[in-house]
Specification:
Helix 3 packs across helix 4. The chain has 334 residues and is mainly alpha-helical. It is built from twelve helices and four strands, in the order ββααααααααααββαα. It has three domains: 95 residues, no CATH class; 100 residues, no CATH class; 61 residues, no CATH class. The radius of gyration is 46 Å and the shape is elongated. The strands form two sheets. The chain has a two-stranded antiparallel ribbon with strand order 1-2.
Length: 334
């Protein structure tokens, strides 16, 4: 919703400006704090000073779960006064914030907070101070909830890169004994020194060192290094052996030749060591083959013997039958 606000709230002829405030239903704790900050600007710009006016205005901007929580806290607080409006707002904040939010936020800032790599120290310090000011709005809404400035500076020093902390130690710079602006100025000098070091070295040859002829430790000229830097943008191949772009470690000819030499050496040493293993393996194979031949021979001989016995039995039966026939013929002839 867009509101027209006056630069001087009590002067109707004062210049006006527009301020858009998003509707709030649910979201993160910081989104709620930003919403309440915009709401306070509307209160000031439109000269809203009474309780019923504030109640009516916030109910136009809250929707869904947030509106239900606010109405519940407002009903519990009682009549629509300025003091009760503050109680209802605190109830809404407690509804959105997680349990022990103040304790968890302070623990994170003291133990885990680190400056992001790509963020400037001035922006980081401004954000840190902003978060510290937010602490006054956290439940349980006590006095002096935010951190003192010396502790904020101590957190900022601990959140800085380790290289910066070493430089501070070398120069005897104690962040807690200086103002935030002095701390930012000191760190900005370190940022400037790092940016100058980065600009003096191409991306592909940073910290590699060059000789008087403009060649680096791998014997590559600056012009060729810049060409490889351009080529890096195209294929993004990098060799960790030569510290250059243009080919990978798998494609490196030096590594391929070295691997071939190492393989030939390994094979030459491995043949002697593996002779005993080869003999044992051959003996084991020979023994297994003999055992298999024995088993097969026995099985074949058994089969042949069985077949021979069967043939002999059949032959004996046939002879007995022939003899019987002859006896019958003799009897008939007699």
């Amino acid at each position: 919703m867009t509101f027209k606000l006056r630069s001087v709230p009590t002067d109707e002829a004062s210049t006006t400006y527009d301020l858009s405030v998003p509707f709030f239903s649910n979201g993160s704790p910081e989104e709620l704090l930003i919403f309440l900050n915009l709401l306070n600007r509307v209160f000031v710009g439109q000269n809203v000073t009474t309780g019923p006016q504030k109640y009516a205005l916030i109910r136009r901007l809250l929707i869904g779960d947030a509106l239900t929580a606010f109405n519940s806290k407002a009903m519990a607080a009682g009549t629509e006064t300025i003091d009760h409006f503050k109680i209802a707002i605190q109830g809404l904040i407690s509804h959105v914030f997680p349990n022990r939010a103040l304790l968890l936020q302070k623990q994170y800032m003291r133990r885990y907070l680190r400056k992001p790599l790509g963020m400037k120290i001035r922006n980081f310090m401004s954000r840190l101070v902003e978060i510290n000011e937010y602490l006054t709005l956290f439940p349980p809404f006590g006095d002096n909830q935010k951190l003192p400035m010396d502790e904020v500076l101590e957190i900022a020093e601990f959140a800085s890169p380790s290289k910066w902390q070493k430089v501070m130690h070398m120069h005897g710079f104690d962040a807690t004994m200086h103002s935030p602006s002095e701390f930012v100025e000191f760190c900005e000098r370190l940022e400037f020194a790092e940016s100058g070091e980065t600009q003096n070295h191409p991306k592909g040859q940073r910290n590699s060192g060059t000789d008087q002829k403009g060649r680096n430790k791998d014997g590559i000229s600056r012009a060729k290094s810049s060409e490889r830097g351009i080529k890096r943008k195209k294929d993004d191949k990098f060799c960790i052996l030569h510290n250059t772009y243009g080919h990978t470690l798998d494609e490196c000819k030096v590594m391929i030749d070295q691997a071939k030499r190492m393989r030939s050496t390994y094979e030459a040493r491995g043949n002697y060591k593996n002779q005993s293993w080869t003999r044992k393996d051959q003996e084991a194979k020979k023994k297994k083959a003999e055992e298999l031949n024995t088993i097969v021979t026995e099985a074949v001989s058994k089969a042949l013997n069985a077949q021979k016995r069967q043939e002999e039995e059949e032959a004996n039966n046939l002879d007995a039958l022939l003899n019987l026939n002859l006896e019958e013929e003799d009897n008939l002839s007699k």
